[in-house]
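In this supplementary section we document a worked example of the pipeline. Step one takes a protein sequence of length 140 as its only input; no multiple sequence alignment statistics are reported here. Step two produces a three-dimensional model, which step three serialises into structure tokens for compact storage. The input and output of this example are shown verbatim.
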Amino acid sequence: MSDNLFGAMTISANGMKAQGERVRVISENVANADTAPLSPDEEPYRRKIITFKNVMDRDKGLKLVQVDDIKPDTKTGFTDKYMPYHPAANEAGYVKMPNVNMMIEMADLREAQRSYEANLGMIQQSRSMAMSTIDLLRGN
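The serialised model returned by step three reads:
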């Protein structure tokens, strides 16, 4: 089988791994969307964002995608929710809530899912081409 087919599979597998990590980060954000702090002087859960980078695999001669960093979203502010009886409520009765926007998380999740599926499709195509090549070589 050609190195090009293996290369395509390797690139796609790394893409799937990166998107799987992205889904994990999004899931963590969604799970903590309503996590309030325990006291007024604490901060609530801060949304995490993931970034990717291209990495050259010199042994295989391939450019691969990898997770670059997972860091807190410091650009988006927290929201205030009126809960006067909560232990983290301030004098006005508001509690700082996480900076997780469910619409953004769902859009990011859908994008990650589609990228994962596209990479899976490439692996399936490469596998199909390899199997066709083997069949041709066998004389079937």
